[in-house]
Amino acid sequence: MRSIPIAALAALVVALSGCATQPGTTADGIRIVASTDVYGDVAQAIAGDRAEVTSIISGTVQDPHSYEATARDQLAVANADIVIENGGGYDSFIDGMLAASGGSDTVVITVSDLAADHDGEAESHDDAESGDVDSHDDHGHIEGFNEHVWYDLHVMEAFAGELAQSLGTLDPDGAAQYNAQLASFTEQLDQLIQRAEGLRHEFEGKKAFATEPVPDYLLQELGFENVTPEDYVSAVEGGVDVAPSVLLEALRLIESGQVALLVHNEQTTGPEIEQAVTAAREHDVPVVPMTETLPAGMHYLDWMRSNIDAIVAALGAGTQ
After folding, report:
1. Stretch (H or E) spanning 121
2. Within this chain, do residues 182 and 227 fall inside the same structural domain, yes or no?
3. pTM for the whole structure
4. Do residue 185 and residue 213 come from a single domain?
5. Taking phi first (over 0 means left), then psi (-120 to 50 degrees means alpha), and beta for anything else, what does residue 297 get?
6. Do 122 and 36 have their domain in common?
7. What is the mean pLDDT of each run of 10 residues along the chain (320 residues)?
8. pLDDT value at position 309?
9. What is the CATH number of the domain that holds 216?
10. Which InterPro entries match (predicted)?
11. What single-letter DSSP state applies at residue 119?
């Protein structure tokens, strides 16, 4: 996809926005722009037919870490009433477009800011933003913070509540509808949380190997201990070769019989990942693939439910 520099995008927005409908006045309702369809799907569930939701990244092909904005993306952000970003270095292209649009009235929800303090990770996030921790790697990750917060069911519950409140403020006439749709969403989400809590007694203390930190929050919720070597994860996330000694350490760990589960991101490939998956299969370690963005044809709640189902099925535990 052809990209356009932010400066050029800003000029284009100035030229086009003069004839564009101003935020909050569209006949289709409130305009919401989400960085990915993960947040777009939740936004649609909460807003219903009173909002027009645009997800800049949809499907499992594009990588949010390296995505470059188009003129169409920039115009959507410039005309949005609410912009939803993950933050934490994950979708920094949104920040560039917000800066270019200069829309001071736009409500911006940064979901990673809602993250609970998981073993100090939220603190690490704050430190990294302020410069106290090494900042970003080449893929935009903030060192010391797992930015994949949509795998944290509690954070997503907080996000849904924040969004419903923002919608109600912008559109008081729709507040009752937003709250009703929020209640329906959170009821289903709470069922998932309760299920995860119910499975902890089966998974508590079991060791998991994750080729990337994408599913870490969900694994933690289920009680798993992630034992993946940090240097292995850092190399894979940074898009660089895993050092031979680190790869050997990872493979020996998988082959040792200590690891109960291996989870890998289907959207990322590479020889080090393939070697880890192969080693797991050769040593009868269950392998569960997951994705970083919403699979086609699925809603967020269905997606998280299917991930839990996959882990339960792989380990022959619980009742699906």
Report:
1. helix 121-130
2. no
3. 0.84
4. no
5. left
6. yes
7. 43 41 53 97 98 91 79 95 95 92 87 69 42 43 79 97 98 98 98 96 96 95 97 92 97 97 92 96 97 92 98 77
8. 97
9. 3.40.50.1980
10. Bact_metal-bind_prot9, ZnuA-like
11. T
138 and 226 within one domain: no
Domain end, chosen from 134, 159, 189, is at 189
Q: How far is CA 75 from CA 11, 18, 110, 130, in A?
A: 11, 11, 20, 30
Structure tokens at 299: 């809603």
**Strand blocks (E) in the chain:** 30-36, 51-57, 82-85, 107-110, 207-210, 225-226, 259-265, 287-290
**Domain-embedded: residue 170:** yes
Note whether residue 169 is domain-resident: yes
The three-class DSSP label of residue 311 is: helix
DSSP for 149-161?
Answer: GGG-HHHHHHHHH
pLDDT recorded at residue 14: 42
The full length of the chain comes to 320
Give the number of domains in the chain.
Answer: 2
Query: What strand order describes the sheet that includes 30-36?
Result: 51-57, 30-36, 82-85, 107-110
Encoded amino acid at 99, one letter? A
**Sign of the dihedral through C-alpha 221, 225, 231, 236:** negative
Same-domain check for residues 20 and 145: yes
pLDDT at 316: 87
Distance from chain centroid for Cα 291: 10
Asked whether residue 44 is domain-assigned, the answer is yes
What pLDDT is attached to residue 171?
97
Final residue in a domain of this structure, among 123, 157, 189: 189
Identify the pLDDT of residue 317.
64
Amino acid, res. 233: V
